[in-house]
Design brief:
This protein is α/β, with parallel strands linked by helices. The protein contains 17 helices and 18 strands. The protein folds into three domains: 1-65 and 182-242, P-loop containing nucleotide triphosphate hydrolases (Rossmann fold); 248-298; 324-535, P-loop containing nucleotide triphosphate hydrolases (Rossmann fold, 3-Layer(aba) Sandwich), CATH 3.40.50.300.
Length: 539
């Protein structure tokens, strides 16, 4: 469907894409993976034409439509929600023209060619879309997708300008799904979704008829949706047939094979050199020495693939704590006319490891702030246990860093000079070298800002840590390191997140926060989702 040949793109001295080539098939479901800064988002923008390449070519037939959802930056206003998403059907009239043009093209094609059958499939898809664009079906599709992504029927007549950034991205995603492009490019589509909406999106994409290319740091999401993995690594592109778990295993096996081949070759070269040096002056062995020299000169050295740096992260040793960590009693909280909590009670014991889940707007982050003590309830009591020391990572903590400070100064601002905490060492462990530590906060990427915020947490030992969406902007490998650090932490943990692969191994309870109350369940997040589906009659 799309062929990419010898694509070269440089950023200064660095080759972001070093003559990479690949093909995108008609029904490929691809995960695009790589560490932060490897060029994943740029690759999607190259496919949409937003970024120009230095050299190479991209062959895309005229009939191939491409839809793209960026990470953020999309907003709309001036129309009601329903009117805005209805604009997705503006190009419906062009479908019949595409069908006619494709049908005419087929007359001049060899029926044995693969493209001939691709076009037959495309015509079938377009005819199906035309049928679905009948007015009575359009309304049903609009409401199904909007409500699947978390909107209520009461939202339909609201002006889109009233919705926050995360909901604006849901509006953009709705329009994209309604357009049904042949190639759907999604850059972190689950970033702004709660666990319920993400579960719905997984089901929807599993039945999507076109091709998908998805950037996501949610491993469980990739494993569910994709059957092909494209890895961008140090300017190169590697393709694996399988989902993320298959890619991880195959990549490790490939690197192990390279290292073994390199080690074997190194030993062989050493033996050849030893023979040459021993018999260099021996006239009887002159021809053999020359032969060995020629062989050495022809050898193509096996270079094992370099491993990218990984972050190292450990929470400070927690201070001793009592069995009771915290009690909330009769908590009431409202913002104007919007009531978040009414008579909320919560008890936390030492060793609790709780995932806080629920739809967006239910009050998860508000609850985290109240537990952390950074926001006061309008009524009710917050009673800390003896010696409870709380460490808190806010959802937007990375955005609250001081842009006028450099990285080291920002981390030092959270340090009180206590022994056991070392700002330079913490930053080094999080991949900030001496030069990086002098960078101004204002020039950092989202992932770098998150790492700085995590470094600040290391400056204050705590026995109860509260992390609100800590994995935003972290790549999969970095999330694994953070996951390991939480596993090794001996205190109490409260995690607000919708990443079930990240949560499952580290939590022993799920706190479901709903607009009408909350409940505590003793299970992990996958078990919670299965229970939720059973309660909804979906399984």
């Amino acid at each position: 469907m799309i062929t990419i040949r010898e694509l070269l793109l440089r950023h200064g001295e660095r080759a972001l894409f070093n003559n990479i080539s690949t093909m995108i098939g008609q029904h490929d479901r691809m995960g695009l993976v790589g560490v932060n800064g490897s060029g994943k988002s740029t690759f999607l923008k190259v496919l949409t034409g937003e970024v120009e390449i230095d050299s190479g070519e991209i062959e895309k037939p005229d009939y191939v439509t491409v839809g793209y959802l960026p990470q953020d930056g999309i907003s709309s206003h001036g129309r009601t929600l329903y009117e805005e998403v209805e604009t997705a059907f503006e190009d419906v009239l062009s479908l019949q023209a595409k069908i006619d043009a494709a049908s005419e093209k087929m007359y001049d094609m060899d029926p044995e060619e693969d493209e001939y059958y691709e076009i037959i499939d495309m015509i079938g898809e377009w005819e199906l879309q035309l049928e679905e664009h009948q007015p009575e079906k359009m309304k049903s599709r609009i409401e199904r997708i909007l409500m699947g992504l978390g909107f209520e029927k009461s939202d339909m007549e609201r002006d889109t300008g009233e919705f926050s950034g995360g909901w604006q991205m849901r509006i953009a995603l709705t329009k994209l799904l309604l357009r049904t492009p042949l190639l759907l490019l999604l850059d972190e589509p689950t970033n702004h979704l709660d666990i319920v909406s993400q579960n719905w999106l997984e089901g929807y994409l599993a039945g999507y008829h076109g091709s998908l290319m998805i950037i996501s740091h949610d491993r469980a999401f990739l494993d569910t949706i994709t059957n092909k993995t494209i890895e961008l690594k140090m300017g190169n592109l590697n393709v694996y047939q399988g989902n993320y778990s298959h890619y991880e295993k195959s990549s490790a096996e490939r690197i192990a094979t390279q290292r073994k081949a390199a080690s074997t070759q190194k030993k062989d070269i050493a033996r050849q050199k030893e023979f040459i040096n021993r018999f260099r002056a021996n006239q009887k062995k002159a021809s053999m020495v020359q032969s060995r020299l020629k062989q050495l000169n022809k050898i193509e050295i096996v270079e094992p693939e370099r491993e990218e740096k990984k972050i190292f992260f450990r929470f400070p040793e927690p201070p001793p704590a009592s069995h009771k960590v915290l009690d909330l009693k009769g908590i009431y909280k409202a913002y104007g006319d919007i009531q978040v909590f009414r008579g909320l009670d919560l008890h936390l014991d030492r060793g609790d490891r709780i995932a806080v889940v629920g739809v967006n707007g239910a009050g998860k982050s508000t609850l985290a702030r109240i537990i952390a003590g950074v926001e006061k309830p309008d009524a009710g009591e917050r009673d800390l246990g003896v010696n409870t020391v709380i460490g808190y990572f806010a959802q937007h903590q990375a955005e609250e860093l001081d842009p006028k400070k450099n990285v080291l100064e920002e981390v030092e601002s959270a340090w009180n000079g206590k022994e056991g905490a070392n700002p330079r060492a913490a930053l080094g462990a999080l991949l900030f070298n001496g030069v990086d530590q002098k960078k101004m906060v204002s020039v950092l990427s989202g992932g770098e800002r998150n790492r700085v915020a995590l470094a600040k947490m290391l400056m204050q030992p705590a026995n109860c840590i509260i992390l609100d969406e800590p994995t935003n902007h972290l790549d999969i490998r970095s999330k694994q390191v953070l996951q390991e650090a939480i596993t090794l932490f001996k205190g109490t943990v409260i995690l607000v997140s919708h990443d079930r692969h990240f949560l499952d191994p580290v939590v022993n309870k799920v706190l479901e926060v709903r607009p009408d109350g909350m409940r505590m369940l003793t299970c992990n997040v996958s078990e919670y989702i299965a229970r939720m589906e059973k309660e909804a009659g979906l399984s």
